[in-house]
């Protein structure tokens, strides 16, 4: 089977990592792959390093529409917002079917081009039940499937893990890892740190990330001794191995790939009852769920997990089971079934 993956993002975040993980698995399964990527993105460098993929560099969705790019491809697989327009044009010009994986739980746009692009897709995939709900609200007649993300596996350096543990020696280390946008709930974590500072001095929180909200968040955390801003991290495997708990108190979230990554690394997790997070965190089974925007609940959940070893072990067992259910091998097989259905419908 020959699949053309399209991701035109300029950055390299969770969506690009998940796309790369699927591509690597499909190569292991013997697929032929073409990848259309933004030349300014680290994603393009990652694809170039794989060698087995045919890489097509594309700065804008209106460019790179030669017939030769998808002449031998069975299906185009879209992974990012602007890429859907590239797939639409390739469909209109050369007749190649495409599917769309949507990763955010925002309402779909009403703009005519967006609606046309979603209407012409053979199948729309949502990472979570909330994303699927948003898709079907705008496109009730569409063929829609739910396929969650798969956790990305990161390398671990024992020396670097030891260094992190030494830096926060004798602390129960809590991490939150995300780009510092308002909807990621870093303010809730800072609020929880204020609650915990006096009553749980053994707990320390590290915020891993950067972004336009950081300066304001640092002001909110001013004077707190139990929270550290560590900046954007490129070696998350070391932090997962060194930490005791991951929190992710987002106000909205498509699914929460970092939650799955922490689960696969054997961490207990706390997340909000928002977006797709409840799809992967079953309260008191594979983690703890709290209400959106509630620092007191977050502080209580952190303290409970820090102080109860039996609870930690039970949540870790549940999180590992959830991570296994989202293993990339199963995800790739699910997509394979979807590709075959698209091909059958074109026959």
From TrEMBL:
Residue span, Glycosyltransferase subfamily 4-like N-terminal domain: 13-148
A Pfam short name: Glycos_transf_1
Annotated Glycosyl transferase family domain residues: 168-317
Record-linked Gene3D superfamilies: Glycogen Phosphorylase B
Family annotation (InterPro entries): Glyco_trans_1 (IPR001296), Glyco_trans_4-like_N (IPR028098), Glycosyltransferase_grp1 (IPR050194)
Protein name, entry field: Glycosyltransferase family 4 protein
Naturally occurring in which organism (per UniProt): Salinivibrio costicola
